[in-house]
Amino acid sequence: MAVKLSVGLQRKVGLPEFGSLGASCHVEFEIDNSLLEHDLNGFHQKVSDAFIACRQAVHNQLATANGTLVDVGSTNPGPKGSRNGQQATERPNGPNPRPGAGTITQSQLRAIHAISRRSHIDPAVLVQERFQVERPESLSIREASRLIDELKRCAAEVRT
Question: Taking the model in full, what pTM does it have?
């Protein structure tokens, strides 16, 4: 017997001059009832996967709505290519864009790909949105560390 599973997520961020921008994602699908009876971890994984997909969809929508880049971690939007209302620093091409920043380590790269894969998130899209770089390999050590922490936090929030 099938069970209907419905998952939804809404998010609203403030904009200047008392404005706001909201996005929501709701999905509904059927799962096998045996997951509830015999595989509770499998059921939780299905719910978690649905929430992660919704979170990514809402994040993407808010981040690119109306031609603005909205930092969904804050309420301070800015023009496309900016971070928190301030112009983004130009990044030269290459793996080490800033002196002293260091390049992403192989361990960090593996972690980003593993967590992204489990969360059904495209890491290339994520680093483009968050850090304005083409690929995860272009991140600095600090940026990679922040991204890993963010991905872990996102996955932990979905589980709770």
Answer: 0.43
